[in-house]
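ok, trying the design again with the full structure, not the truncated one.
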């Protein structure tokens, strides 16, 4: 925990920052600067035969379902104990600082449950469609798998992601400040096929997806979205959904707040107006400075964060070539550009987006610099195909006040110190 504030001019020496040797923003690795750190001769790791080289290893089927190397045991979801009263209605966080590319491995997708994990035998699972439809329908999992299906990569972000950071820098690590997000490839049936099968009546304007868990979560979703890109998904990253993520069936609501992605999906009611249930009234609304609340803030706006270096991932190699890596996403479509600043937002450099650029999916960006070893104030600012620019936290507070929890897409600052350690700070 820390509450460090770094003021606009001191204590960071701006001239030192500017000397950090950043070239054009594209590849800035100085030629020949990256000599190996290991000993070139006489290193016992080269001259001595190691155990893994001497003895046969485990054969096939020693690990029928593979797990990561024992040396990766620290790469796990983590929670913040004081945040919630119980683990059944709680959240843990994706270790973003340990991941690369744009896909979150299934076992590391953050979890947010309101009534714990429902453990459902797919043979006993049903999906009902009722309400303002021509014919009520009940599907088994087998029925659903006879509809045409699609594969789509989408991020899911909880609207409360970064919520603890509204009033100032608080949690020391991007896992905690930004880890209520994951991005996987879903396989599922477009919801519109199921609604067409049931026949939505002309006054059917909203749907109410409902979960089969102990929380029986519900949210009102406008019919336009339901008929647009929503999926009823049964696979993630090629395999069955994990129980934590709604096995055997979850609703996918691309680009919209995670709360609407009902897990353990058992029923979809069609209605003529929104239901105004708990999760869209007392929760997932934002109290403005004037005492009014914003409601139905569905879209997750453009956002980004630098994942390395970051407080849990300090620079351990000293000055010289440094890979700055991060993720960006937008519920409005593709991310078209990410800018990175190493001097707290004074100067910006266009980062390199690498890997697939898919709408409503995570994007990976890099800025390769030659670090001169001085203090850095790292920031990233994403821009999406609608032209939205990620705001500063101050801009957000001016427009939304200080009471908000949800939809904090403000620019994050990491203070990289001369010893390579990194701290969550805010520049005022
Ligand atoms: N049935 C049900 N669906 C649910 C929830 C829940 O508690 N029960 N939590 C919601 C919230 S608030 C979020 S952010 C996402 C989290 O999805 P994840 O656990 O796959 O990360 O699921 C949503 N769907
Ligand atoms: Mo959420």
């Amino acid at each position: 925990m820390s509450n460090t504030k770094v003021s606009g001019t001191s204590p960071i020496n701006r001239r030192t920052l500017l000397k950090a040797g950043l070239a054009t923003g594209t590849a800035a690795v100085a030629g020949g600067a990256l000599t190996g750190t290991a000993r070139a001769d006489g290193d016992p790791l080269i001259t001595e035969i190691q155990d893994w080289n001497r003895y046969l290893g485990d054969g096939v089927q020693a690990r029928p379902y593979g797990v990561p190397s024992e040396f990766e045991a620290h790469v796990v979801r983590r929670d913040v104990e004081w945040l919630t009263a119980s683990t059944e209605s709680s959240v843990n966080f994706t270790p973003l600082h340990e991941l690369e590319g744009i896909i979150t491995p299934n076992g590391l997708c953050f979890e947010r449950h309101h009534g714990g994990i429902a453990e459902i035998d797919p043979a006993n699972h049903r999906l009902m469609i009722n309400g303002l439809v021509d014919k009520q329908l009940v599907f088994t999992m087998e029925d659903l798998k006879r509809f045409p299906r699609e594969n789509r990569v989408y991020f899911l972000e909880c609207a409360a992601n970064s919520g603890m950071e509204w009033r100032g820098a608080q949690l020391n690590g991007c896992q905690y400040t930004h880890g209520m997000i994951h991005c996987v490839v879903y396989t599922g049936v477009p919801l519109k096929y199921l609604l067409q099968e049931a026949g939505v009546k002309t006054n059917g304007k909203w749907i109410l997806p409902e979960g089969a868990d102990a929380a029986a979560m519900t949210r009102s979703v406008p019919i336009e979205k339901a008929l647009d890109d929503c999926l009823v998904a049964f696979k993630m990253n090629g395999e069955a959904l994990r129980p934590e993520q709604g096995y055997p069936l979850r609703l996918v609501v691309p680009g919209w707040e995670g709360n609407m992605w009902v897990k353990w999906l058992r029923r979809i009611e069609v209605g003529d107006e929104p239901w105004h249930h708990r999760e869209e009234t007392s929760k997932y609304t934002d109290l403005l400075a004037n005492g009014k609340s914003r409601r139905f803030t569905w879209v997750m706006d453009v956002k980004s964060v630098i994942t390395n270096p970051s407080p849990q991932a300090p620079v351990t190699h000293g000055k010289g070539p440094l890979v700055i890596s991060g993720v960006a996403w937008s519920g409005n479509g593709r991310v078209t550009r990410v800018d990175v600043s190493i001097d707290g937002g004074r100067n910006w450099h266009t980062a390199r987006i690498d890997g697939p650029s898919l709408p409503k999916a995570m994007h990976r960006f890099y800025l390769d610099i030659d670090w001169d070893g001085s203090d850095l104030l790292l920031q990233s600012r994403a821009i999406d195909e609608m032209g939205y620019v990620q705001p500063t936290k101050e801009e957000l507070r001016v427009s939304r006040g200080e009471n908000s929890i949800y939809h904090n897409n403000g620019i994050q600052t990491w203070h990289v110190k001369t010893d390579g350690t990194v701290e969550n700070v805010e520049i005022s």
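Keeping the full-length input from now on. The first strand starts at residue 5 and ends at 6.
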